[in-house]
Inverse folding.
């Protein structure tokens, strides 16, 4: 009888452990790493360095909002870095080449990002191309268009005002402007996806799209909205990056999709959809940020940093698979 009792309670024990690590795993890992780094390097836990971490993390964290909401719905967009480049090229191109007011140029850059997301949604929803394949194709297309326009050169000039650069370089009460934008966006999206029907429908679609359709949810409309919002988040990230650089080139943000997806997965977003919390994505991005910052402070080669980043992603993906099978 005791053996039977153990067999019956084992799944529950595994489930409790899985839930524990799903809820507390990343906060514990972040806290442990932060404490270890603080005690092992005197330059880590300083106000200036913390602000550097937040500023360096802000762009990836902002774009990861779009990745998170798409992954919760069971979709993915890996063209986000190319969309960042498109928006940056549109914005800076309008300012430098056509002397357009920076505010109007920024609006147009954000619209360009939204259009990129909309095109991705058409490929996924109506042409029925898997999201990974569709956005892999647009990743190349968008990047190529950026290189065609820039001809492989950087775009810069005196038309890029200090007010525009303030978006990426400025401070408000010693807090970097990109960090303030990041916080505001996270607050907005946390409220939207926790207290509105958009969030409810997104989780429903990710959990079981067929059931959500039977419940009256317009899944295609919601998915299209999510792709557009993902494009807008990429656009904002791209514009902040150009403001920080004071220029743009076709290779802008190339390779950042890796860190963006890693931040979302580390934050607990399930690859199969239906699970994830936007606020935890920020924690995932910050964990990557402190890890990269510490390796820089310790003068660790960028080659080793690339290896470490890959290991972190594999670890996060492995945890996701284990949690989905309730093996932890």
């Amino acid at each position: 009888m005791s053996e039977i009792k153990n067999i019956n309670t084992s799944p529950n024990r595994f489930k409790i452990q899985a839930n524990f690590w799903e809820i507390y795993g990343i906060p514990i890992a972040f806290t442990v790493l932060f404490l270890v780094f603080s005690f092992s390097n005197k330059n880590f836990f300083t106000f200036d360095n913390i602000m550097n971490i937040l500023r360096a993390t802000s762009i990836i964290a902002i774009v990861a909002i779009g990745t998170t909401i798409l992954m919760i719905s069971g979709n993915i967009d890996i063209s986000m870095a190319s969309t960042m480049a498109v928006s940056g090229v549109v914005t800076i191109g309008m300012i430098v080449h056509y002397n357009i007011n920076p505010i109007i140029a920024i609006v147009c850059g954000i619209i360009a990002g939204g259009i990129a997301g909309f095109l991705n949604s058409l490929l996924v929803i109506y042409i029925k191309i898997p999201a990974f394949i569709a956005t892999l194709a647009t990743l190349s297309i968008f990047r190529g268009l950026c290189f065609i326009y820039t001809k492989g050169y950087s775009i810069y000039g005196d038309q890029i005002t200090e007010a525009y650069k303030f978006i990426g370089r400025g401070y408000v009460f010693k807090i970097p402007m990109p960090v303030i934008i990041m916080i505001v966006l996270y607050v907005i999206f946390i409220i939207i996806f926790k207290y509105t029907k958009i969030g409810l429908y997104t989780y429903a679609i990710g959990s079981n799209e067929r059931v959500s359709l039977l419940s009256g949810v317009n899944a295609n409309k919601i998915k299209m909205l999510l792709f557009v919002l993902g494009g807008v988040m990429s656009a904002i990230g791209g514009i902040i990056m150009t403001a920080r650089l004071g220029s743009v080139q076709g290779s802008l943000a190339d390779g950042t999709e890796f860190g963006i997806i890693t931040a979302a997965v580390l934050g607990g977003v399930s690859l199969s959809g239906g699970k994830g919390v936007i606020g935890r994505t920020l924690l995932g991005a910050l964990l990557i940020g402190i890890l990269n910052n510490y390796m820089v402070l310790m003068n660790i080669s960028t080659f080793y940093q690339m290896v470490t980043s890959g290991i972190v992603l594999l670890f996060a993906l492995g945890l996701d698979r284990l949690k989905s099978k309730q093996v932890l």
In short: Confidence is low (pLDDT under 50) at residues 1-9. The two ends are 25 Å apart (CA to CA).
